[in-house]
Amino acid sequence: MIKSPRAGHLGELRSEVTSYEHEVAAFGGYYSARFDLTGSMVDVDDWFEHGLGRHVEVHDPDLEIAFEGFVNQVGINVGQYAAMRGPLVEVANRVYVVYSERDTATDPPTVIPGMITIISQDTGSQAKWGIWEQAVSGGETDADGAEYYRDQFLIENAEPFTDDPRVALEAGGQISVSVECLGYWAWLLAYPYQDTNSGTVTCTAKVQNILQADTNAIFPADYSHVGSNLALAPAYEDSGTPAWNVMKALTAQGDINNDRWTFGVYEGRKVHYQKVPEEIAYQHRLADPSQPIETVIGGEVRPWKVRPARWLFLPDLLTGREQPSPATDWRGDPRFVFVESVRYRAPYTVEITGTRVGRLAQIQAKQGLGGR
């Protein structure tokens, strides 16, 4: 069941949904989802005109949330006509230009880097789509040229794009809607994170500072799932980098022991920032013909309930090896899979992508080698 605001209330989609899939990731949490709908022309018009930005909740048969996010892009097919609107995350309605000022009054001309225009905004767009701030590179120009470029960029990006529509001159064609969603992590792309304070702060404090800087008030001030990471990070951030990139670089540093941490936005837009667990959550027997994912005590986990940032154990691989204890170092044991990403496709298909967990990546990130 998919819930989404429609016509001023929370509507439910059931039989209209012809396909559904989602991804949940160790960095990001509820990452993305996609579903297709059939319906009338009224439904098509409603989704195409009003669908972008809608809150979407996907509920499983137990009425628990399997995915939560917002509509980022909508595509329609009406007979021989097809068009796509969005993505919402590419809207820019609060814009400034970073440029190098070229002074031709000197001989030879001089170039002054790091110049910034004042911010220009489209409040009408912000009222509809939220505040999406973007720093635009203006190259080498003078102040007038940079401001002209800023204003033109704002005009052309303050509203979501509608891709060039296609009309196929042939018979047939059905009425359908395709909806692409992103998790609420994507609102960290909507604002740059800046802090001009010197010194250091704990990683946990910086996570909270990044969330509190959100210009759209997307993330609640509920840090019950934000763990205590006392490793220190520089407080200063003034490069115009999106909050998402800052959060990614911060999470990559791990903790004082160089253990990995993960970050995700889940139910209620609550942030989960936690150390990689030290216990096994799932097991999977390769020889079982039904291919279930189970808990360590043997209960089956439904495909849509499998979560990333957990350990999966393969008990019937390398059966001659000793069974692990909780204190075992699992990094070199191929029977252990750290779940990096879970892709679910209705009704019962699940694909798990694992990754190697070690300490080198965290050490590299602390030395500025991880990138943003």
Number of helices: 6
What's the average pLDDT?
A: 89
Q: What is the C-alpha radius of gyration, as a whole number of Å? A: 24 Å
Percent of sequence in beta strands: 35-45%
Class from secondary-structure proportions: alpha+beta
Uncertain residue segments:
none
Amount of helix: 10-25%
Which shape, going by the Cα principal axes?
A: flat
Question: Multimeric state of these chains?
Answer: single chain
Lay out the secondary structure.
Blueprint: E1 2-6, E2 9-13, E3 17-25, E4 27-38, H1 41-50, E5 55-59, E6 65-78, E7 81-85, E8 94-103, E9 110-116, E10 120-121, H2 123-129, E11 133-141, H3 143-157, E12 166-167, E13 175-183, E14 200-202, H4 203-212, E15 232-234, H5 243-252, E16 261-265, E17 271-275, E18 280-283, E19 293-295, E20 300-301, E21 311-313, E22 336-345, E23 349-355, H6 360-366
Helix pairs in contact: 4-5
Can you walk me through this structure?
This protein is α+β, with helices and mostly antiparallel strands and 372 residues long. It folds into 4 domains: 2-88 and 161-185; 92-157; 190-274 and 360-366; 280-354, no CATH class. Helix content is 16%, strand content 37%. The protein has helices at 41-50, 123-129, 143-157, 203-212, 243-252, 360-366; strands at 2-6, 9-13, 17-25, 27-38, 55-59, 65-78, 81-85, 94-103, 110-116, 120-121, 133-141, 166-167, 175-183, 200-202, 232-234, 261-265, 271-275, 280-283, 293-295, 300-301, 311-313, 336-345, 349-355. It has a 17-stranded mixed beta sheet that branches. Strands 8, 9, 10 and 11 form a 4-stranded mixed beta sheet that branches. A two-stranded antiparallel ribbon has the order 14-15. A hairpin with a 5-residue loop joins strand 16 (261-265) and strand 17 (271-275). The longest helix has 15 residues, at 143-157. It is flat, with a radius of gyration of 24 Å. The two termini are 37 Å apart. The model has no long low-confidence stretch (mean pLDDT 89).
